[in-house]
Write a structure and sequence with these properties.
single chain; alpha+beta; capsid protein of prophage fold; globular; Phage_capsid; Phage_capsid-like_C; Putative Phage major capsid protein, HK97 family
Length: 436
């Protein structure tokens, strides 16, 4: 199924390039594009649905395949949501909200029906965060937009899991406002005591990783031809055109984000304090990839504390892997890198995509390898990515403007979100790089 998703993605890119080329399209051609994009979007959603069902079936958590009406008595729980917050979240899951949302983007608020206005107001009726004020839809002319439908957000997340390398393996949250992630700071071993002897109290302590909220914005300029597309086709176009850049920025920030000084998440490479206990410099002064040796990998793996080995991944660029690592062999001429034959492919005869396996390029010394274009050539990271935490603290919003592109008959769309990320346990990561 992953192969078909890539084919759909490639075809939508061709259509997008055709629209953006500026060529004059007849009404018949526009209708043809509309029909094709609608068909592609429907097929894509069907594949995502099948993947989700099969993934749950694999884990023995199939659940009910038919919608049921949930009987709720009070609101004790519901993920900590109040009654109003729960109702808002439920509204965003409906097809009616999705249809009204994209109708508003295409035609403006003035063209909305009373029913469409009501469902949008229901889905954006309260601030999205207890200590953050979210821009949200209102019937007023100055309204800034609306949170994207849950159906569309699910598509964005699915795409991110497919196109991203590191993101599928980190700890992800969608909790409103600032988030504190507790982790052990000082711990003491258990002590043996004699019978009836009181145990001495220990001085264990917890610390917190505090995740705030930083703006991530992407604007795109498109032809007003897209306003003639159906809801399905328009949604597919926006998800492909706008959110791909947001996904790229998040993936880059997970590794290279520079933190609060630049109003962005703190990436792994900048969050960890690198020194002789967790960093290895290979080769001599001015070394390059040809200086990598088998012993470098065994030494680096030895630096990683044993509790983090089961969940550890190697992260490196494609150039580092194929120009340096693949040529390394042991004393018996066996390559250190063992390729995963299923990398980039669907599993179970094309019936399921398992991101935890298909994103893995291969293995080095038993640990899986993933490639990322956002880690510098020559640097090799080893660590348990679950100890990087990323929180989307406000739902993604979309706005549009005619003013900027008025002379070109274009329209501008803006995607906006608030997020932050950081490392909770620095000892979960080690790294090696060429000697300076």
């Amino acid at each position: 199924m992953l192969k078909r998703l890539k084919e759909i993605e490639a075809r939508k890119t061709e259509i997008r390039n055709s629209i953006e080329s500026g060529q004059n399209l007849t009404e018949t051609e526009i209708q043809g594009i509309d029909v094709e994009l609608t068909t592609l979007a429907t097929e894509e959603r069907g594949i995502f649905t099948k993947m989700d069902i099969l993934e749950r079936a694999k884990g023995g958590n199939l659940g009910s395949l038919t919608p049921v009406t949930e009987q709720r008595i009070g609101f004790m729980g519901q993920g900590g949501l109040s009654a109003a917050e729960f109702d808002q979240a439920e509204a965003r899951k409906t097809k009616e909200y999705r249809s009204a949302f994209f109708h508003m983007l295409q035609s403006g608020k003035d063209r909305l029906t009373t029913e469409e206005r009501n469902i949008l107001e229901r889905g954006n009726s309260i601030g999205n965060g207890r200590n953050l004020v979210e821009l949200r839809y209102t019937s007023a002319s100055g309204s800034a937009g609306a949170a994207i439908p849950q159906i569309t957000l699910d598509q964005v997340v699915e795409k991110m899991l497919i196109v991203s390398a590191v993101y599928p393996f980190i700890s992800k949250y969608n909790l409103k406002g600032n988030l504190k992630v507790p982790y052990e700071n000082v711990t003491n071993d258990a002590q043996w005591t004699a019978e009836s002897t009181p145990a001495a109290s220990s001085t264990d302590a917890l610390n917190n990783l505090l995740l705030g909220a930083y703006d991530l914005i992407k604007t795109v300029q498109v032809s007003r031809v897209v306003e003639q597309l159906s809801v399905d086709a328009f949604e597919a176009y926006i998800v492909d055109k706008l959110f791909r850049k947001l996904m790229t920025a998040i993936e880059n920030a997970v590794l290279n984000g520079t933190g609060s000084t630049n109003n962005q998440p703190t990436g792994i490479l900048n969050a960890v304090t690198w020194n002789g206990s967790n960093q290895l410099n290979y080769g001599k002064s001015g070394a390059n990839l040809s200086s990598l040796t088998y012993d470098n990998f065994t030494a680096l793996k030895g630096m990683l504390s044993a509790p983090y080995h089961p969940g550890a991944y190697w992260v490196m660029s494609s150039n580092t892997l194929y120009s340096g690592v693949c040529s390394i062999k042991d004393a018996l001429a066996r390559p250190i890198f063992l390729e995963n034959a299923q990398w980039g492919l669907s599993t179970a005869n094309g019936q399921q995509v398992d991101y935890a396996n298909t994103a893995v390029v291969g293995r080095i010394l038993g640990s899986p390898v993933i490639m990322s274009p956002y880690i510098p050539d020559g640097k090799i990271l080893l660590g348990d990515l679950r100890f990087y935490h990323f929180n989307l603290s406000v739902d993604i919003l979309i706005e549009k403007s005619y003013e900027i592109g008025f002379l070109n008959n274009d329209v501008w769309y803006k995607g906006w979100l608030l997020a932050d990320g950081g490392v909770s346990q620095q000892e979960a990561f080690v790294m090696m790089q060429p000697h300076a």
